Amino acid sequence: MPHRAVISSELARLFAVLSNPNRVRIVEELNTRELSVNDLQDLLGVTHAAVSQQLAVLRTNRIVSERREGRHVYYHLKDPALAAWVLSGISFISPDHREMQEMTNAIEKAKESWSAEDAAQDKEKSKSKAKKS
Q1: Is the pLDDT of residue 131 over 80?
Q2: Rounded average pLDDT over 15-29
Q3: pLDDT (tens digit per residue) in 74-127
Q4: CB contact set of 84 (below 8 Å; sequence gap of 6+)
Q5: Of all helices (H) and strands (E), which one includes residue 124?
Q6: Contacts of 110 (CB under 8 A, 6+ apart)
Q7: What angle (nearest 5°) sits at the alpha carbon of residue 48, between those of residues 24 and 53?
């Protein structure tokens, strides 16, 4: 059974590495191409330092590798299958049709209820004004 503990621990570490939204985005952006820190900065809309920091975490955890070309450094995924695996996670966070319908119904009922309350308040205000006149 120790092998299960080792594997569980390693998977938990991977999940922890992927727990940052910017790191998830970096993995997805590197899915099919190499990119520099500047490229990633532009795509993510965060600072150069923030991209560098997240790349350091990904590099330390053997998720990305770098290739140097003169003064330029380009990053790529060590295993592009990771990006496909992360992308497949969308199915776990997407609400199902029933949940969407329940939410839509709740929104409509709230709108109706609040609109009715607003109309009743407006009617009361009109009555109050009429009595004062």
Answers
A1: no
A2: 95
A3: 999 999 999 999 999 988 888 788 888 998 999 999 988 888 777 777 777 777
A4: 31
A5: helix 97-132
A6: none
A7: 55
Domain boundaries, the chain: 2-94, 95-133
Q: What is the pLDDT of residue 108?
A: 92
pTM score, two decimals?
Answer: 0.71
DSSP assignment letter at 47: -
Percent of the chain predicted with pLDDT > 90: 66
**Alpha-carbon distances of 68 from 48, 72, 74, 102, rounded to whole Å:** 18, 6, 6, 52
Structure tokens at 3: 């092998």
Provide the 10 A C-beta neighbour count for residue 108: 10
Query: What CA–CA distance (Å, rounded) separates 35 from 61?
Result: 18
State the Cα–Cα distance between residues 3 and 9, nearest whole angstrom: 10
One-letter amino acid for residue 117 of the chain: E
CATH fold of 2-94, please? Arc Repressor Mutant, subunit A (1.10.10)
